[in-house]
Structure formats: C-alpha cells, structure tokens
Amino acid sequence: MKLSTFALILPYLLATPAAAQCGPVIDLGGTCDLAALEGKLSTSTCTIEELFPGQDAASIASTVAELCEYDAPVQFVEIQGTYQRDHNFMDGGGAVADGEYGFEMDTARLKRFIDNSMDDSLISWPEYEQKEDYNPANGYGDNGYMTNFNIDRDAEKGSCQMNTVMCCFIESAKDALVDNTDVCRHDLSSSPHSNHVNSGWSVFTDDDPAHCVGFTWEDGAASDMYKGNALFYASMYQTVSKGYTGNVPGAPMCACVEQMPVVTEAACVTATGTALSYQLIVDAETGSVSATHSVTMTYGDCGGNDLKAQVKAVHADTVIATDIDEYLVGANNCDDTNAEYLNSEQLLVTSASNRFTNIDGAVEQGMTWRQIFGEGIWFLPPHLDPAEADEEMRTLMEACIPALGRHCLLLRKCPSCSSEPHRNIVYQRLTAFPAYQEGISTATTMDVPELFMNKWREPNNVMHVDYELYTSVSDALSKTNEWQKADYNTNSNNYGFPRNSGPTSHIGNNWNSYKWGGATAEHHGFYVEVPGDATSV
C-alpha cells in the first residue's frame, strides 16, 4: 500500500481536471471505487474518459483510488491538523495534556469537530506522509500508519495483530477520573516509540486511579469500516467530554493493545454508521473532481460487554480470543499475574516443590538429559554470544545422528503450564537446520535458541515437514500421537515455543518468552537428550 502524498492536504487540492458536463454530483452509493463509478457512468451520457480527460486507464484507476481513499472520508489528521499533535496526544502529551492556553482553548478545535462533524463523518484510520518513508526503512511495513496503530499485517515489527485498541487515562482536567481498572505491569520494549526505551519492564503495585477503554473490529465487517470513528471516540472524545488525559508511565495513552500495559479490565465502545453514501463532485467552472460522503454515526457501549468479553465474542474460535487474556487479566488478578511475570524475569522464588526438580544430568523417561536454558525455578541463560548459543544447541541436537540416525530429542518441561499436554513437550527435528543468522528465522537462515525462546516462526520449521511434537518420549520414539495443530508468529512478536500450538486445537497462554511475560510457562526448562544413554522405551 502506497500512502497518498495528498494525505495531509486539504481535499480540494485533490481535484482533477474533468468535463463539467459530467456533474455536478455523481452519487456512487455505499461503495467508492472504480467499479462503482464505471457502473454509474454506464447509464449516463458522461464517459469516464470525459470525466478524467488526458488520462490512460491506469492513471484513471489511480486517481479514483486516491479520491476514494484520501478525499472522500475525513482524514484523521484533519481533526487536529498535524501529525505531531496526533502523535503527542496518543502518547499522553502535547498541548492538550500539558496545557498551553488552558484546557478549554487547547481542546477547542476538537470540540468544534465533535459539535459539527462527529455524527456525520466517516473517519479514516490515521495515516501520515511523515511515516511513508520511515516505516518501510525501519521494518514497520510499506505504509504510513502511526506506530501506535500499525495495522499492516506484513510489517516485520510493530504490527497490530489483535484488531483491538485501548486507551488508558490516569488524569482528568474536569471531574474526578472514573477508576475502572488496576494497572498491573508494562513491558517497555513493546512501545519504544512512545517511551524511547529499548527494553525493560515496570510493575505497578499501588492502586492508583486509572480508566481504560477500547474497541475491537472484525476484518471486512462494519466494525472494520468504522474503526477510525471508534478510535476517535475512545481517545479524543473521552478527553474533550470527560477531561481524561495522561498515560500510564512508560506506556502510550492510546495504542494497539499489544503496546499497552497489562490491566485488569477495560470499558468497551462501538461506532456504527448507517446510510453511508459517496459522491464525486464536479466543479461547474473548472471541471475538477473531488470526493465526499454522507453518513449517520452512532456511538455507544458494547451492549453490556467489557472490552475482554467483546473481543472474545467478536473473535470467537480464533487465537485473538485467547490472547486477550494476556492483556486483560481480570479483576483482582494483578498480584498473581505480576508474581508469575516477575518469576519469568528471573526474580526467583526461594523454594519449590518436587514437581519443579531440575533433570539436568538425571535420567528422565529412560534417558539422560542436559539442560540448555530455562526460566523461573530452572533459570539458566544461554551463552551471551548468540552465535555461540546457536552453535552449542545445534551440536547437542545433532549428536544423536551418527548413532541413531535422527536428531536428539528436545524436551521442554513446564509444570507451571496450565495445559496438561504442554507440561511435557518433545520436539523431534526431522530436517537439517539451515545456516545461522542472529534473530528472526528466514527462508534460508535460523537462530535456533531464539526460535525456541522468543520467536517461534514457520520458516524452516513446518510441522510434519521439519519437526514433530509429542506429549511424551515414548510417543516420540514410536512416532505416534503427533500433535496436529501448529501456530506461529507472523511478525516480530516475542512469543516463543510453541506459540498456541496444541495436540488437536490451538491452546493459548502456554508459550514461553524470555522477553515478554503473561503466559503460564513461568517455570520451565529446555533439555536435550544425551545420545550415549539413549534407549528405546
């Protein structure tokens, strides 16, 4: 997707020379695209060549696409006027939050939009010319989206995969803030564009007032069409109408839920449009063409659902419905989930039951095992040098090939995992590992420790082709009861082994991550079979 260079310019500058006799208004109905225009002109005396004289077919298609995407709706940036104002606002700062002339004056432009245009405007998702070069050059995709709201599925990093946005406010310029949630923690590495911190984490233990509200959408549904309106309603409207401002320290004020702090609960809002209609306007004097629309907007709550319930309802039977539990943990769950998170960050508890016994060097399921890394009770970091860590793991897993004709088994023991099949997972490699390259796996390279620790991905790691998963060593040795449901990261998210893979269906919250918290694998260890003691069972 190429961002229009006109995305920040007033609509009339998008005008295109045309034949005045084709107007003054061409009503396209509820769809704005080339097909709708061609269908409308097929019953008129005006041709598309007369409407856009001197342009070939490709140029006409591009012009219509520009008009429909950037001229017809209200661009998000038009509401405040500049990218910098929007960016600062969504991070919790700028004139509205910091104060320049007083709250009423600083929000006057927003209030005028609410009073005059909010109820009859289709608002686009925020895109900016300033991001058009930066994003592709830095792995955020070929787009112009604000980093807080990057919905480019193909972006290497920063992509909003859960179709859910949340705003969390901690201050009010008017009446007292309505406290509707507890803030648990925040992974600072998930929002570096807001906090300018590469890595780290914050845990919040005091019950300071906070108000979180958000929305979700389904691709291709009406909620997708009006998600720009929902974003305005969840963010700027809350500020103007209720005075809500301020961000949780270290986090954005508003962003895709993946970049937001972990909280207990959040309110839910919706934006619904009816009678949406697009029009092309032909200037009688100049013959220039512009685009506009009409719509009736309704804003409200989610019919009694909070944000978590709404996400589970809209995205039922998808990984989003389970992954939301990582960000909205439920009332009174901060202390327990924070304790799990701190353990995953290697702040170890002082004692453990026998079920957490380390099997490094011990016989387990008929063979001896060597631990390579682990978290929580079994904390063991890999080599600091990623290349050395990779070389060690490859060497250990390939040690069985000469005698047994297969890679050594890899076992993850995780008694803290909530899913019984995930408490012992055996990985059997079937194909040779590709060449080493630090970081995310590619079509020709792999960082083997990183694959298991943080970035469980599909390249060179396809179930039933490159590997099999089993729930026991005996199943692995007899090649029976292989797991059937694979799941992988599609971007740079730090979900490690085995993401949401399961024996017969996707099962969430049992992955490990050495960079993120939130799942139940806070106590686990990875072990490689020692070939000299390998036996059949």
UniProtKB/TrEMBL annotation:
Keywords: Signal. Residues 1-20 form the signal peptide. This is Subtilisin. The lineage of its organism: Eukaryota, Sar, Stramenopiles, Ochrophyta, Bacillariophyta.
